[in-house]
């Protein structure tokens, strides 16, 4: 594995890295590897999943199920029974 040395980093950036590392319970080296990997994916548009194959399958099934939910269903969240949209399947004003 290759060692890299970063020079002339802004103190605020170093503090953000250290804060992130502490929040994750990771050391600085692990944190920097993670941040570089995530940053590179974001910059290159690499959409490869970091999930294992079983997690990928579960996530794909959840997304597929959500895609089958009618668009207006989530609009009903938080509404009282009297404010329910009558267009929604099974909706009752009351």
UniProtKB/TrEMBL annotation:
Superkingdom as given in the UniProt entry: Bacteria
Protein name, per record: Uncharacterized protein
Species name: Luteimonas deserti
Lineage per the UniProt record: Bacteria, Pseudomonadati, Pseudomonadota, Gammaproteobacteria, Lysobacterales
């Amino acid at each position: 594995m290759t060692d890299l040395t970063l020079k002339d980093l802004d103190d605020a950036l170093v503090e953000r890295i250290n804060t992130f590392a502490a929040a994750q319970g990771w050391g600085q080296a692990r944190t920097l590897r993670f941040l570089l990997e995530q940053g590179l994916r974001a910059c290159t548009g690499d959409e490869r999943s970091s999930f294992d194959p079983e997690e990928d399958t579960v996530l794909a099934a959840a997304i597929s199920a959500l895609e089958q939910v009618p668009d207006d269903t989530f609009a009903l969240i938080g509404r009282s029974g009297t404010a329910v949209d009558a267009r929604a399947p099974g909706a009752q004003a009351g």
